[in-house]
Amino acid sequence: MESPSAAELFITAVPSPRAGAKGQATEVCTGIARVLEAQDAWVMQERVFASSNALELICAARSRTYAPRAGGVLPLRIETDATTAGEVGGIQIHALCKMPQPEELCLDEVPAGRIIRSKDCTFLTLSAITSPEAGACAAQAFRSFEKAETLLKKAGGDFRSVARTWWWLKDICAWYGEFNQARREFFTQRGLLGAKAGQQRMPASTGIGMRPLGGASCALDVVALVSPTARSRCFDGAGNQRSAYDYGSAFSRAAMARTPGGETVFVSGTAAINAQGETVHRGDAAAQIENTLGNVCAVLRDMQCQPEQVVQAIAYCKTPEVEQVWRAKQGKWAWPVITVLADVCRDELLFELEATALPGLCRPA
Length: 365
Description:
The protein has six helices and 17 strands. The protein is α+β, with helices and mostly antiparallel strands. A hairpin with a 2-residue loop joins strand 13 (254-259) and strand 14 (262-270). It is globular and about 50 Å long.
């Protein structure tokens, strides 16, 4: 996606199936390096999904290949169980071209975010914000919000500047209610949630059951725009689903933001939940996947997007059996997608899907 002043590059690197962990790690990192060098691009945000063994191999391969294009900010690293494709789930990168290398934002002298400034907007990302020192799971989440806020303030913004968050929650079903309580409390204190309808200003979000590397109970990623004129728009309800706030969660179904290269749509993590907030098709993976795809596509339509304008997606499958059902269906969508095993926020939910799309994208026929 390209504007007169910048271009954005969305990379989804998925290895050849069953190539062995070392071979998969080398393949994805070498491919990423080739693309970044060819486009003279700088990494803005980066996520790595792999088994604990493969994460070590990826870190080594990354240092040999594209690490100079990523600077000092480490990627979000998520430990996953092996899928039918192997130990490496994939690497997802958002990069910028036609611009200088991003500045780095530091938290306690450790690089934790990247920032690009232009005359129209300041665009920033935060990666893998964790707070294991806070103790209990919900306290870790609240403290991570505070750390992210500190970095946003360094850039002249606050949580009203945030378009999109991702929460990676270990053992999600054991404390998702406490997480939602902590999130609502933080948003209320910062004025993102009001007592009256229409006073909400909640970012789009994914909250998924996965293990951040390092043992923290949760990790937070953020995308934000700091500008009086370039704030993102958040849509509490969209497509087939009403606001998640109606049943206790505090996130918007989607956000639309004017990023450096153009307009970007972020579709939140979406599952087989109806307009009343109820899980549908319990025990039926195929039906839940179809329902979820329908819900995501309905949100895209509301955002004036077509399915073929999706540039990144992550599919979260509860079990290997659900993964097999998903892989049988995903071919017809031809999305750049990473498929991983993960717990969804309700025991009976078997599948979740998120997407990023570009309304102005025209794919070759």
